[in-house]
Amino acid sequence: MKRIPRRANQSLLDFPTYxxxxxxxxxAIPVRTLRYWVLDHPVWEIAGADLDTPLLxxxxxxxxxxxxxxRTRFKLSPAKTREVLIEARKETRRHYPLLQKNILTFFKHxxxxxxxxxxxxxxxVDLTQHRQLAMWDVVKxxxxxxxxxxxxxxxxxxxxxxxxxxxxxxxPVSIDPEIMSGRLIITGTRIPVQVVLQRNLDGESVSxxxxxYRLPTSSINQAIEHLVHKAA
Length: 232
What we know:
The protein is an alpha+beta fold. The protein contains seven helices and ten strands.
């Protein structure tokens, strides 16, 4: 596939670079599921929707990841998940509402922090309950799955197939547009996970790969497990 040039002043966060199968692999979700959200029944238009081969930007991938978390971790139906995104767009008037730093989650609720005003204190809008206000002190952010910069932009994603919930801080792999063109890497390195997987599939042992990269075998195992459930 021919690579498209990045426009002048176009942020790496918005540059369309991921195919649907590639993004699905990185996020450890079925291709058909991702295709449903971004092509078959889209709630937002992905950055490269008009290309011969539709491509997702980092923000598209991140929002799709949030949608999948909402759907699978909080046991929401596709209709309710779609409703959450629509309500979030109403509240923020933004193309990628779930990537705002004021989006929080708690059990089956997706909540948006609202700043205090002269007439009321800080509060939350519960996007799963048609914008009803919720209590501030009962929520917990998904801080272990994402990283924001000082401007409040989501700039790094930590997908993990075996994530157990908000208390799980495991981040073996990550996606950062500034590192290796946004490919899935072993966190803290510039090592693409797909390269590690291919070496393993070609017959190299996990211990040999770990020795070559000077990493613990657990790091290699987790990277491979993210893509194929468990190391060969």
